[in-house]
Design goal:
Order of helices and strands: EEEEEH
Number of helices: 1
Strand content: 15-25%
Bound molecules: zinc ion
Structural class: alpha+beta
Largest sheet: 3 strands, antiparallel
Oligomer: single chain
Length: about 80
């Protein structure tokens, strides 16, 4: 939905963006990765069916997460 025109669930074309914003109001979307660091998350919403996706859009935030975020567990050797 961020990278295409249509909803990935219903094919709807009316996609709206709800930006993650600095918390000047209660209406924002972010994840707090440290007590001082917040990463804003934009939500892409299909008006037709209500499906939404969340994206970290800033390259600097992705770089930060690449360095600091925990890597997912490796279950490839799980029996
Ligand atoms: Zn949809």
């Amino acid at each position: 939905m961020k990278n295409g025109n249509n909803c990935s669930k219903c094919g709807g074309e009316d996609i709206r963006v709800i930006q993650g914003k600095l918390p000047l109001t209660e209406h924002h979307n972010f994840t707090k990765v440290t007590p001082w660091k917040k990463i804003m998350i934009s939500r892409f919403l299909c008006i037709n069916c209500g499906f939404s996706e969340e994206w970290v859009e800033k390259d600097e935030d992705l770089d930060y997460l690449a360095k600091k975020a925990k890597q997912r567990d490796d279950f490839s050797k799980f029996v």
